[in-house]
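Need the bound structure for flavin-adenine dinucleotide, inputs here:
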Amino acid sequence: MGRDHEVTVIDRSKQAYLCGSFPLLIVGERESNKVRRSLGSLTRRGVRHLEAEVESVDTSSHTVTTSAGKQEYDYLVLASGAVYDWDAVPGARNAYSFYNIDTARRLRRKLASFRNGRVIIAVASLPYKCPPAPFETSLVLDWAFTRSGVRRDVEIHVFTPEPMPPGSGRAPGGR
Ligand SMILES: Cc1cc2nc3c(=O)[nH]c(=O)nc-3n(C[C@H](O)[C@H](O)[C@H](O)COP(=O)(O)OP(=O)(O)OC[C@H]3O[C@@H](n4cnc5c(N)ncnc54)[C@H](O)[C@@H]3O)c2cc1C
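Answer from helper R.:
Posting the output first, comments after.
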C-alpha cells in the first residue's frame, strides 16, 4: 500500500510466538528467544504496534476502544485468535501442555529428565487449535526418546475424539 495508508496492530502482547516451533522447543531443539518476535519491530516495516487491550469495536462509527484510548479506522481486520479454556477438563491445569510458551517451557524442563513411563497426549474435544500438532508432537517425542536411548522404556499414546489424524483419511467424495 502507498504512503497515504497507516497500519496499526493492536495487541495486548509485546511478543508474537511461532507456535509451530513448540513441538521442537519441548525437546530442546529450539530456544525460546528464537521462536518469538517483538511486535514493536514491525515499525521497521512502517507498521505501528499499540500495546493495549481491545475493549470494544463500533463498526458504525469505525472506532476501536482500547485500554490506551480510542482508535479510528477506515478498514478493520479482527484476528483475536483462540483462548484456551484450561478449566474445561477438570485437572487439566496441572497437566503438561505445549500449546503456549509458558506451558511448553514447563514441559521442556520435565522432559529433560524424563527417562521412563507413559506419555499420554490427550485431545479433550473438537475443534482445537492446530489439528496436526498432537500427532506431530507424538512423532517428535518418539524421535527425541530414540535419540536419548530411552525409547524402549517409554510408551507414547495419543487419545483423540477424531476417528483419525487430519489429512490421513479419505475425502468425503471417496478420493
Ligand atoms: C502447538 C502448536 C503448533 C502449531 N503449528 C503450526 C504450524 O506448524 N503451522 C501453522 O501454520 N500453524 C500452526 N499452529 C497454529 C497457529 O499458531 C495459529 O493458527 C495462529 O497462531 C493463529 O493466529 P491468530 O493471529 O489467528 O491468533 P493468535 O496467534 O492467537 O493471535 C491472536 C492475538 O490477539 C491478541 N488478542 C486477543 N484478544 C485481544 C484483545 N481483546 N485485546 C488485545 N489483544 C488481543 C492476543 O494477544 C494474540 O497475540 C500451531 C499452533 C499450536 C498451538
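Comments: The mean pLDDT is 93. Helices lie at 22-25, 101-112, 133-147.
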